[in-house]
Structure formats: structure tokens, C-alpha cells
Amino acid sequence: MTQVMAVEFRPHGQLHYLDPGGRSYRVGDAVLFPTDNGPEVCRVVWAPESCDAAGFDPLPACLGSARDDDLRRDARNLRIRAEALAVTRRLVEHHGLAMKLVGVDLIDRSDDVDQLVIIYYTAPVRVDFRALLTDLARSLQSRIDLRQVGSRDATRIAGGVGDCGRDLCCSTFLDSFEPISMRLARLQGLPNNPLQLSGVCGRLKCCLRYEQAMYADFSNRAPEVGASISTPGGEGVVVAHVVPLDAVTVRDADGEVSACPLESLCPMAGRPAPDHRTLRRHRHDAGPGEPGSPESGPGEGAPRPGPRPVPKPRRPRVAEVGEPRPDGR
Fold first, then answer.
1. Which of 186, 190, 267, 318 has the fewest CB atoms found within 10 Å of its own CB?
2. Where are the alpha helices (DSSP H) in the chain?
3. Long-range contacts for 322-329 (Cβ within 8 Å, ≥24 apart)?
């Protein structure tokens, strides 16, 4: 077990984990996070707790509580970033460039430069921003670094809310992007429609990847669709899986459908899955002439014939050279 705490650099931003170093912090405290360019101010959103060390990589150690000088510097950098974003938007519009600004970062503690302004943007095509770069350096009196990012990284920087009603996974707790394909949607029983499975970034949702382990674990524990099982309400047949509830949908002998948790199921080995229509038809003893009885006619209780095969369309025959056409021409 190890002590772990979570911090964020902006409200509702991405979570970063720190080793408290044996100190006690409360939610909302301003602490210092070690970065490659020096310590940065962040806020505690998850007080130190004991967690399994196997789930975390070697964590950086917290540098202690932020002092008044650190808080004043952080507030000044926030104002500089806001001004840089406003100036960049005005110059992009002045030059008529097809760029969409995503965010601005500021580095003022570096051995190479005194102040570096990093501007993230998206663009459908490659942009010639040489004139823009010159105007930005003159207006901001800083070194400028323009970085083009993809749709996933742009959504992570901007943040937002998904169609599930929660903050985006990429902007809160995901550290990296993994390949996602429609194969995961088929394994999870989701509709094979990319439009319904796309996130805010326009790509397939990240939850398809990190929820796959939950679906794989469920499929190893749950009975297959069509299996006969015993529930507290009686015998039935599994007709569907409900993975988020850790349950299955069961149809009983009366045709009623209900959701049952996996912990309350008991598989009935060696018995084939009954047909609910057959069970419902044989609830009463069929008398002579009733549907389902041996004396009933072929039209009563007999299986309906399947649909007729659709004839294949015939390819029209092309008339040979010199052969008269059907219309006489």
C-alpha cells in the first residue's frame, strides 16, 4: 500500500497523481507539482489515501504547499495566457488563416528562454503562419511556439461534457489514447453505426476501449444467450445480457421478461433451452381438436411455412449484330 493524492491544474481538468511524501493535505489546498520546467501550482481534488501501488507507476513527490509568491506568479501567468489567446485570435482573423485556437500554455522557468508562449490549434490543411508568427512575437514580446494538434488532443485540451452527462474521459483521467475500432463495438453488442458511437472529437469513444475488460469479464461469468437457468422466480431462458447492471434478461415459461443478477442465477446443465412459445402453448392439456393436440388438423398448431425464395433477377440478353430488336427497329 502507498499514499496517493490527485491534483488538477485547472477546474475540472485532467487528474494528475502525486506522492504526498508523508504530509497531510486537504481538498482545495494549493500545492506544487514538479514539472520539467520547474514547479507549478495545482489544487488538491483527492486527499491522500492508501492505495495499491500496483495500479500506479512511480509517482512524483509533491513539493509541498504553494507559498504566496507561487500563488501570485500563477495568477500573473493566467492573465498572460488570457491576453495571448485574445491577441492570437485577433491576428488569425486579420491574416485570414483557417486555424481554430484550442489553448495557450506559458513557460517562464526555462534555462533556454525567458518566456515561451505555446499556442495549440487545429486546421483542416497545412497553414502558412510565418507572417502570423512574426506579428505574435512582436505583440507578445515572447518566443512563440505554434503546435498543430489532432481532434482527440484538441478535445482533451478544451474539455467538455459527453453525451453520458459526465466530463470527458480524455480531459479528466485518461493518460494516453489507444487504438479503437468497430470490432470492440461488435464484441460489446453495440450498434454497428459509427455515428452513434462517436464522441465530441468525432472519433470513436474512448470508453469502448477501457470498458472492454469489463465486457470480457462478464462474458466469462455469464451464461450464454439461449441457456436454461434457474432463478429465484423459477426456470427460464437467457435472452440478453445487461453488462452495466451485471445481470441477464430472462424469459420464463409464461413469456414474462425480467432482469436477474448473475449472483442469483443457477445454470441447469444438460438441459436444452426450451422454446418459450412451446412452453406457453402447453401450459394446459390440449384436448381433441385444440391447437397443439395430435388430432388437430395441419392448419392448427402446425408450423408455418417459411418465406418463399426470391427469384434472382435475370440479366437482359443483348441482341447480336444484325438481329432485329423486339420493337421492330
1. 318
2. 68-95, 130-140, 151-158, 182-187, 207-210, 212-221, 276-281
3. none
Contact 226, 237 (CB under 8 A): yes
Domains, in order of start, for the chain: 2-66 (no CATH), 72-149 (3.30.300), 223-281 (2.30.30.60)
Q: What is the identity of the amino acid at 177? A: F
Residue written as cell 395430435? 294
Supply angle C-alpha 178, 184, 187, rounded to 5. Answer: 155
Scan for cell 487545429, then name that residue. Answer: 122
Contact 213, 221 (CB under 8 A): no
Tens of pLDDT, residue by residue, the chain (329 residues) = 788 899 998 887 888 889 888 888 999 999 999 988 888 999 999 898 888 766 667 888 999 999 999 999 999 999 999 999 999 999 999 999 989 999 999 988 777 778 889 999 999 888 888 899 999 999 988 899 999 998 888 988 888 888 888 888 888 888 788 888 888 888 888 888 888 888 888 888 988 888 888 888 888 888 888 888 887 778 888 888 888 888 888 888 888 888 888 877 665 544 444 443 433 333 344 444 444 444 444 444 444 444 555 455 455 444 444 444 444 54
In angstroms, the CA 252 to CA 235 distance is: 6
